[in-house]
Amino acid sequence: MTDTIQTSDPVLPEGAIPAATLVIMRTAAGGGPDEILMVKRSTNMAFAAGAVVFPGGRVDPDDYLVARRHGFADEAEGAARVAALRETLEETGLAVGWPGLGEAELAEVRQALLAGTLLSDILESRGERIALDSLVPFARWCPNFKEARTFDTRFYAVMAPPHGHELTVEEAEHSHIFWSSAHDTLAMADRGDVSVIFPTRRNLERLAGQSDFPSFSGHAKQFPVELITPWIEDRDGQSHLCIPGHLGYPVTSEPFDRVRRG
Questions:
Q1: pLDDT for 23-74, tens place per residue?
Q2: CA distance 103 to 107
Q3: How far is the C-alpha of 49 from the C-alpha of 42, rounded, in Å?
Q4: Does the CA dihedral 89-94-96-102 come out positive or negative?
């Protein structure tokens, strides 16, 4: 079951790990809704093993230093933005928000990060800054389940930068990478072709309601970014996992026995 109870004023669970994730959108070559970059987590991962997720990961101590150097007054917010960009580069090879990083240098910088070189040192040595203001914040989730790690994850959206190289996963954590519209990814999940955890499904449903990045960006700005800690509620004799109804999500509950939590 879960530690989470119904609450209108959620409190950050003790021990929650700061994290960030990035929804990267691009224009579909054949028309239609924008495509979103998705990665499939390796089956040996402790959290969300085998699930399809957006790129991202935990916030590192160095991310706070980079945020301070970029003048972010809210260090937690700034560090999360840094983590979203850094993790995306490490996991996919896509340099979002880093216009000074050319394609010829990208693989070397990515490998340096994966080998443990600090982003702050790389930026300082290159005399560059990253574009933290390019990200659109739209959600903050912290599910609190006994059977899964507790992550305090901030969600951002951004338009994909131009790139000519093939994107590849970082094999220690992921097994597959692909572009797909939110609607198509949900259809794959409904067929059982992919697995998605509860926050990913709710955010894909929200993304599916908008056709492209500009429309989603406008939609996101209409709603506050508040901490979402899902709770269990009995509805007609069946337990549902629920989220607040005022944050822009078209679906705000799901039968608990259908939910993949982590």
A1: 999 999 888 999 999 998 755 544 555 789 999 999 999 999 999 999 998 9
A2: 8
A3: 6
A4: positive
Distance between CA atoms of 84 and 86, rounded to whole angstroms?
A: 6
Give the distance, in angstroms, between the CA of residue 197 and the centroid of all CA atoms in the same chain: 12
| Residue 81, phi then psi, degrees to nearest 5 | -65, -40
The amino acid at residue 87 is E
pLDDT in tens, 123-167: 999 999 999 999 999 999 998 876 567 899 999 999 999 886 777
DSSP 8-state symbol, 160:
P
Largest Cα span, the chain? 61
Average pLDDT, the chain: 88
Rounded Cα–Cα distance for residues 56 and 39 (Å): 10
Q: How many CB atoms lie within 10 A of CB 52?
A: 24
Element (H, E) at 56: strand 56-58
Structure tokens at 168: 């590849």
The model's pTM: 0.90
- Decide if 234 contacts 19 (C-beta within 8 A): no
Q: Are 133 and 167 in contact (CB under 8 A)?
A: no
Please answer whether residues 229 and 142 qualify as being in contact, where contact means their C-beta atoms are separated by less than 8 angstroms. yes
Q: How many angstroms separate the Cα of 20 from the Cα of each of 79, 83, 125?
A: 9, 6, 25
| pLDDT at position 49 | 58
> How far is CA 144 from each of CA 15, 147, 185, rounded to the nearest angstrom?
10, 9, 25
Q: Which helix (H) or strand (E) segment is 60 a member of?
A: none
The alpha carbon of 96 is separated from its chain's Cα centroid by a whole number of angstroms, namely: 13
The residue ranking higher by pLDDT, 255 or 249, is 249
Distance separating alpha carbons of residues 155 and 120, to the nearest angstrom: 22
